[in-house]
Structures are given as C-alpha cells and as structure tokens.
Write a structure and sequence with these properties.
Layout lengths: L5 E7 L2 E6 L4 E5 H6 L30 E7 L3 E6 L8 E2 H9 L2
This protein binds zinc ion.
The site of zinc ion (ZN) has 7 residues, from loops.
Length: 102
C-alpha cells in the first residue's frame, strides 16, 4: 500500500492540477481525465495486461466540466462531473499512472 497523499487539488482552466505529498505535481486535461474514468460503466481501468478496453461512451461538453470532487478513504479522488456522473473513483496510484502516461 502506498502512503501517497494529495496535498493540493486545483482546477486551472481546463486542467486539474494535483500536488502530491512526495513533492511531485501532476496535470490532467479534464477531458482526458473523464475519458479515463475508472468506474464500471466507463470501463476505463486498465486490465492486468495494461490494456484499456472501453465501451463506447457518449459525452457532452458538460461531461468534461468538473463540478466538484471528494476524497475517498484517503486513497482516491472522486470527481463530480458537470453531467452528473460521479461514480468513478480515481485511486492515487491510478492518477499517478495516468500522469506518467502508462
Ligand atoms: Zn465513469
């Protein structure tokens, strides 16, 4: 288990900026972050082989607006999107993998 924590979360324009407890910073385009939503409906979580097979999702402009977010159990971030979608929990490890482009 990782002891990684988020020390700061900020929306800057169309990007989400995260500052980590180890001093690293990650920036995500909101549309890319939404498309990587790991919830079951979006299916964005990579499988053990690292492949991401997503169902065809329909997005609107509001899908890529961040309406808010919550921390989940000290291990993840749960964004609430402008279209009401909020079932995706982005674990810190997942966010770090996304930021690394894996
Ligand atoms: Zn989702």
């Amino acid at each position: 288990m990782s002891a990684l924590r988020l020390s700061n979360v900020q929306v800057i324009g169309n990007e989400l900026a995260l500052a980590w407890s180890d001093g690293a910073e990650s920036y995500f385009a909101l549309d890319g972050l939404r498309r990587a939503c790991p919830c079951a409906a979006c299916g964005g979580e990579p499988d053990v082989m690292g492949a991401v097979i997503r169902p065809q999702n329909t997005y609107t402009a509001r899908s890529f607006e961040l309406a808010g977010y919550e921390f989940v159990g000290g291990y993840g971030l749960q964004p609430r999107w402008g279209d009401g979608h909020s079932t995706g929990i982005y674990s810190f490890d997942y966010l770090r993998r996304l930021a690394a482009g894996d």
